[in-house]
Amino acid sequence: MKNNFIVAGILLATLTTSTVAAQNKNSGEAKEKPTIEYSTLPKVDLKDFKKNKKGEYVIFDGTSLNGWRGYNKSYVPNKWSIEDGALKFSKNPKADKPEGGDIIFTHDFKNFELSFKWKISEAGNSGVFVLAKEVKGQPIYVSSPEYQILDNVKHPDAKMGVNGNRMSASLYDMIPATPQNSKPAGEWNTSKIVVNGDKITHYQNDVKVVEYTVRTKDWTKLLQSSKFSEDKWPIAFELLNNVGGDTKSGVIGFQDHGDDVWFKDITVKVLK
After folding, report:
1. Number of domains in the chain
2. What pairs with residue 146 in β-bridges?
3. The CATH number of the domain where 134 resides is what?
4. Which domain holds residue 15?
């Protein structure tokens, strides 16, 4: 009899453990949040930069890289340079030890209009980031929506994604730019990104092509259907789901995607 009681007790304990495990699985317990460590590198004061006649801060005037540095770096990597008044990323620069990486303007913006012109090399790819955070050990795009820069004709990304959501001016991998009105590789495009509260709007060649609202249930759904979903990329989902963090602000960045790209006339109008 004693042995029977022992066997019965073991079976009961096993069943109880299995039941609890199943209940925990079905209850949708919150997943452990990824560890996020932010950079503490210094930022600049906008008061040190001039405004143009439109009241916009000129953050790149074609002559100086003041206020700029590499993402998570204290200096500007030498694949970025000034060429004919433009900020250029060079795939093959004339340098002894070429170093690339994304570049940022080191000031946290909250509500603003970023205006710039860009041109891309043939079959080239790049991007522009807003509200980005410098996260140690992570690329810039884990925390920032990306305004895609692309040669729509010859780069393969143009035919990837869904409904053209990796083409120029799109919210990368999430919302396609409509209409798609980019100019061919080697020609200058005019772009603007407006961040006002939770709403972000993309313009390309003076036409509004994308509009979306972050920090909402719809935004979360959009992330979950992208490459930044909670299952595919937990740290990106955590950061992008609360774009700009507690301050709802972040830096502006330009992407090194390995292809020649040029930016100029870069200004920021601060909104209330």
Report:
1. 2
2. 129
3. 2.60.120.560
4. 1-30
CB 144 within 8 A of CB 132: yes
Both 119 and 168 in a single domain? yes
CA distances to 159, 165, 227 from 162, in Å: 8, 6, 11
Q: What is the pTM of this model?
A: 0.87
Torsion of CA 140, 146, 147, 149, to 10 degrees: 60
Query: Per-10-residue mean pLDDT for the chain, 272 residues long?
Result: 41 39 46 84 95 97 97 97 98 92 98 98 98 97 98 96 96 97 98 98 98 98 95 96 97 98 98 94
112-120 and 146-150 strand pairing = unpaired
185 and 151 fall within a common domain: yes
CA atoms 152, 193, 145, 177: torsion sign:
negative
Question: Which residue, among 43, 41, 64, 48, has the nearest Cα to 266 in the 3D structure?
Answer: 64
Whole-angstrom distance, CA of residue 180 vs CA of residue 205: 10
Amino acid sitting at position 143: S
Phi, psi angle pair for 119, to nearest 5°: -140, 150
Whether residue 260 is found in the same domain as residue 189: yes
121 token code pair: 């090399």
Do residues 25 and 93 share a domain? no
For the CA atoms of 83, 87, 91, 97, what is the dihedral angle to 10 degrees?
80
The residue length of the chain stands at: 272
Residues 117 and 228: their CA atoms lie apart, in Å, by: 28
Tokens matching residue 189? 């495009």
